[in-house]
Structure formats: structure tokens, C-alpha cells
Amino acid sequence: MSNAVVGLTPAQSAETSLEQAVCVEGLRLKYPGEDRLMFKDLSFSAARGEKVLLLGPSGCGKSTLLQVLSGMIPRATEVPMKCEVQRVPDSWGYVFQDPDTQFCMPYVDEELAFVLENLSVPREEMRERMQAALEEVGLDLDELHMPITHLSQGMKQRLALASALLLEPEVLFLDEPSALLDPEGREQIWSAVKAVSEGRTLIIVEHRIEEMAHYVDRVVLFSPEGEILGDGPPAVIFADYEQELKSYGIWYPGVWKDYARSPAGKELFAPIDGKDQVAGNRLPGDGGTLPDVLHREPVIRLGAFRGMRWNKPVISLPSAEVYPGDFIAVIGPNGAGKSSLLLSLMGLLRAEGTYELCGEKVIQGKRRKVRKERERKLRQIGFVFQNPELQFLTERIGDEVVYSLLVDQMPPEEAQMQADRCLERFGLKGMDGRHPYQLSTGQKRRLSVATAMARQPAVLLLDEPTFGQDARNTFAILEMCEQLRCTGTAILMVTHEMEIAQRAATHIWEIREGQLTSSMPSPRWSGGTESKRHTVAGVNGAADTPSVISAAHHHHTGVSS
Amino acid sequence: MNIWNPVRITWLHRANPVVKLGLIIGLFFMTVLTHNLDFVMYQAFVFTVCLLVLSGVKPWKMLLFLIPFLLAFISSSSSMMLFGKGDTIWWEWGLFRVSEESFYRGLHLGFKGIAFASEGLLLVTTTSSVDLFYSLMQKLRLAPKYAYSFMASIRLLPMVWEEYVIRRQALKVRGVLPIRGIRGIVSRAGLYVVPLLAQSIRRAHRVAAAMEAKQFDGDGAKSRTYYYPFRYSRYDLLVIGLLAAAACCAYIAAGYFPWFGIGDVRFD
């Protein structure tokens, strides 16, 4: 402690300690089992009332730094560390990433009471303080005694913020509070944060920074090695370190536009002229002659299709067709039935109505023979769940893909060769021997997609595969989907990301309250025809992408003039 | 949790959970130490009636919940009847030997099971886990770290179930074929246990970090205030009186209206 203030007179040191809300100097930290130091002589401080955003690639130690600054390391989590100065704020609050693992009590009031009990607040004052905190974060509940499970994910995060506020924090630490939220929830949590930040110091770690990039006073950019690369006002950092922001996969404002301009992005978002496609070569590189195309059958045909849970229809589609080479983005609010649609197509939920897959009827029924037959047919569909870990079966990365192929009765040598090729394509080569759980989140996701794609299914269903992923991983997943689409696989992807729906998908299905309310070609599909403007406006106001709208508008006026 | 939602709030709901817990443990001991068939039968009857009246749950729902216990009654009593020791043989066929003693002991065992179930359900249906742990902290000085870790883990249980369902679906999607026999069961269990455990441990760690961040001090029970205060009230006396009266009723009924009248069922 004394080392750091050697050069200062007592008066000066008192002054700096007054100004600084948090401070750490000469920090060295190493997780047990890791080869290298996470931080090597890192110094960081934030002034009172300052709003600081920490940016950097996954795994660079931003979250760890947040825990050190709050004193959670080493007080609560024991990690070997050493530093010259560690100034922990007197009062602080913390909001974590996962909305489901921040609470220990079943009801809203009980959870808030838990915090107040920790502070020994008399019981008579509790309700009043709870209400004040909820009001501050804009959480308007009819009844305080409400089960937390009834709240949406966005509301849960605001509840987490409210319980942090009960601590009357001088400093608020936010560890990717919006990473696992849909666009609506993201907006709500950030407006709540802005509303309560008055007079408080904010230290934020976040990948999705559209909402608050220009709200913070200072941005600190970390390198993959945990060193500070840049430190300054947001405008300066964003201008000076554009390349780093891109390569670290940060969702900086305009990331989609920049990607669309890159060679990979141009290919991925290349417009497809729907009208031409109907008449001629619908698939790039397909080279099909006209008669061939005319005979092209839909890979999925649905009529009066209903997916059931406990004998109640949770999703119904009057009629729908999916053609080879379609990339359908399934959008809609939470709980509308998007995932149920995928599950019932996959045969994991009971379904009713007509369902044809590759020209053959999928017969519903419980009889053993019917069921076996159905399962055999549905093997033509690949499925990627949201949590990759729950999909892994083997203890070696190399075996994961092989397993998928062996199930399809492929000879072992051929399966091994094909799996190797597949892993190489997904950038997972050379780690065959490791356990799937040892991969980074992005790699796990890639592996789970690889296991589904290796079998070259006729249809690939993906349930929010880009959820919580950084920009780089998101683009990587989209590129893989596009490659597969080009070979004729039909893709259905549930997503909250309007940019994906509009830029990468060929069609958009909107689901509300268990009904397919609209299905239309995406701006990409109609590639420069008049329907473009119409489509963009039609995507239920959630079109949080003024750039696309204006671009489409330009195009439209250009065409008409 | 919702299935237990009572339609009426009874005295039992209002009584202090600690008193109820003590009372139910007392009743358990009474049932365990009873060797008189009539007394046990009347206990089973009386406490089932108590359960129907005092749980506040709709009677048909409660009877539905009792079905598994009825099955337990049949299985435990029938196995005791068929295989138990005894001198007065009533019927014999191969391995099966029903004797008078084993028959009555079987009935005795079955009724004991029903009595246990009713007593346990009396506590479970009228006490939420949060109430129980709050009153244990306040009345029996249970350290908050144990109480809150229990309450937090109860909250995590539905998530484990959800993940189990997803895992089952994922295995189906990946084309895992069921292997028959014991080896199949073992390998199948491994496929579930490892990922679910990994997720749960990580989740528990995150919840613990969040609790620490909310300034939770597991040992500081002294200065802690409580959102739900638990005091002893007249309902505690009422409930003690009521359940004691129920036990007395069973005892007296067994004395005056014995159905079997065979006294101690133990075989010696």
C-alpha cells in the first residue's frame, strides 16, 4: 500500500483518495491452472462520478478486473493476486450478466428484502425502500409479492439493478447486463441505468454498446493479453481503434454496416433477386436448367399445422412452404411460440395437420411403427439448440462430429475423414483431443453447429444461435449458414436480431401469440425491387435499424425516378 | 408450488412453522413407537381427516395426492403379508406364506405408512420453504448461510428440470439410440448427469457471487433484520391442542372400538 504513495505528500494523497472512486495499482493476477498471468502490473482508476466503459475481446479479463475493483476478489472469490494499491469503494452495487442466476429468493419483494436484511434495515422501512428502488429503475409492478419467474428477462435485469440500488452504491459495477437480453430488454436496462447513474460512478463491461457508447465519459480498451491499449473519450477511442474493435468482435455502433462493406460481408449479404430466382438459377452455383428448377419441390410443406404442448396448440400455421436454399428468419416477441415451431417441426412436440418433408408425408401418431418411421424421416433435419453444452455427447471434440456421421450409418473411416474436413472448415482443427467443455463460448457454438451441419441435412433449424455472442462469432455463424444455404439446405433460424432478418435471411416469418402472422421476403431477397421498402416497414416497428430503412428508401426513390 | 395453493387459510397456515415442525416430529415418534394395530389404524384415519380439513387444499385434490401413498400402503402391506414370519398359517403356495401374524403386521405397516404420509403432508401443504427457513433462523438461530443456501437451491431446481428436458430432446436430435439392459441405464445416466451437474455447479457459483455482491454475510445472524417476522401466537396453542386432541381421539377410539383387538403386533 505504502509503495504507491511514496512520491506524494500526505495532503496530495488525501486529495487523490477523495477524487478516486475505485483504484488498483500494479495488479498481478493469475487463475490457478492457467499458464500466463491475466494481468501484469495493471493500473486502473476511475474518478468519482465518472462513467467508464471497459472494452476488449472475450477472455481478456474485464470481468475479473471488475471483481477486483469491487473487492469481490479476493474477499469472496479466492484467486491468487497481488497489487500495490487496491481501493475498494465504501458502497457498491453489482449487476451480473445472467438474469436467472442473480436471485436467491422466489418473489420480488423477498429478493429485495434479502438485500435490506443484509443491511439490517428495520422491517418497517423495507416496503417503502423497495418501492422507491423499483420506481427508480422503472419497474412498475402491480404487486410487490410477485414470483420472479413471471418477469421477462429484461425485467429481471432491472430488478437486479433495483436490488443493487438498495445498497445505496457510490459505485455501480455492471458486468454485461444486457448481453442476454432481446433488443427491447436491452433498451430498457440501459435507460434504467442512465436514470439512476446521476452522481454515481459507473464501471461497465459490455459487448453490446450501441445503447450507451456515447453516454459514457471514458472508454478503456483492453488487448487480448489484458493490457490497456487505449484510454480516452468514446469518440477518440472509436476513431483510433476501429480495427481492434472489429477484430475483438465488439458490437460497436455501425458494426453491421462495416461488415457489409467487407469482402466476407458482401458475399454474405449479397442481394438475391427473388423474381429472377423464380424463373432461373435460384441457387448460386446450382447451374440448374430451367426444367430442373420448375420441378423443384418445397422441402417443407405445411398445411393447417399445429404444434401442441399438453394438448393445447402453442403454434399454428395455416399454410407455409420452405424451398431449398431459403434462409428464413423466425422473429417475434418472447414466448410467442418461435421455439415451439422448431420443436414441432423436429418432432419433439406433438403436431397435427399436414406436414410434408422432402415430398414425403410425415405421419403423426403414437403407434410404435409410425413413430419409428417418423423419426427416420425427421433425421433429414438438423437442429442446433441454444445452449451448445447440452448437445455434446462425447469427451473429445474430434468424436463429436464423427458421432453424428456414424449414427447415419457411414463407414468409420469415411466418417473420420469427413469429420476432419468439417472441423477444419469450422476452425476447430488441432484441438480434437480436448473436451468440448474446454472450448470458448464461440468455439462451443461452432462445434454444435458443425455436428448438425456435418450430416448435410436438408433442413437446418437453429434456435437463437447468435444469442449472447460477440459480433465476430455472430458473423462466423451467419457465414456458415450462408455456405450451407448455397448448397441447397433450407435454414430456419429463430432470432431477435433484426439485422440478421433483414440482411442475411431470404424470408422473414413473424410469429405472435402462437400464430404465424406474416411471412414475407426479406429486403435481401427482393434485392432492389419495389417490395423492399414495404417489407422493411412491415417488420412490426421493431425495425430498430433506421439505416436500412433509409437505404431502402433511397433505393426505392432511385428506382421510381 | 402452485399445486399446493390452498383455497382456504386454516389455523395450521397461521401457526409458527417451528411449532408445526416440532409437533409433526412428535407425531412421527408417536407413530413409530405404536405397536397396536387398532391405534395405528385410527391414527391413519384421524390424521387423514385432519389433512383434508386443515390443509386448505380442495379435498378431491388432496385425495389425488394420497393415491401414491395408497399404492405404498398396498405394496408394503402385501409384501409383509406374503413373506412375513408367523405361526398360524392361513394359506401357503410356493414361496408365499400368509400367516395370521404376518397378515396383521402387514396391515399395521400399511396404516403406519398412511399415518406418516398424512402427518408429513400436514406440514408440507401448509408451510412454504421460505416461511420454514425464516422461522428457523429467528426461533432456532439457524445460521443464515444455511437457510439462504437452501432457499436459493430450491429456486434453482426448476431450472435443472428444464435443462433435463432440453438434454433429453438434444439426445434424441443427436440420434442417441437407447441401449437396453443395465449397461444402457448406466451409460444413459452418465449422459445426463455430467452436463446437468456442470451447468448446476456453474449456476450455483454465480448465485453465490450475486449473494456476496448483495453484502450477504452468512454468519452475521445477530444484527440481521427479517422481512417476515415470526412470533408465537395463539394459533400455535390452538394447533397443538387440536393435533393432541386428534391423537387422543385415535387412542381412545382404539380402546373403545377396537376392530382387531389383537394388541401388540410384534412377532417374538
Automatic annotation (TrEMBL), chain A:
What Pfam families does the database record attribute to this sequence? ABC_tran (PF00005)
GO molecular function terms attached to this record:
ATP binding; ATP hydrolysis activity; ATPase-coupled transmembrane transporter activity
Name where it mostly resides.
membrane
Classification via InterPro entries: AAA+_ATPase, ABC_transporter-like_ATP-bd, ABC_transporter-like_CS, ABC_transpr_CbiO/EcfA_su, ECF_ABC_transporter_ATP-bd, P-loop_NTPase
Sorted UniProt keywords: ATP-binding, Cell membrane, Membrane, Nucleotide-binding, Translocase, Transport
Give me the Gene Ontology terms describing cellular component: ATP-binding cassette (ABC) transporter complex
Membrane topology term: Peripheral membrane protein
- Location of the ABC transporter domain: 22-250, 294-538
Compartments annotated for it: namely: Cell membrane
Give the record's family classification.
Answer: Belongs to the ABC transporter superfamily.
Could you tell me what this protein is called?
Answer: ABC transporter
TrEMBL record, chain B:
- Topology of this chain in the membrane: Multi-pass membrane protein
* Entry-linked Pfam families: CbiQ
According to the UniProt entry, where is the signal peptide?
Answer: none
User: Which chain regions cross the lipid bilayer?
Assistant: 12-33, 39-57, 64-83, 114-134, 237-259
Major localization listed first in the record, in broad terms: membrane
One cellular-component annotation, GO? plasma membrane
Full protein name:
ABC transporter permease
Q: Which organism is it from?
A: Paenibacillus solani
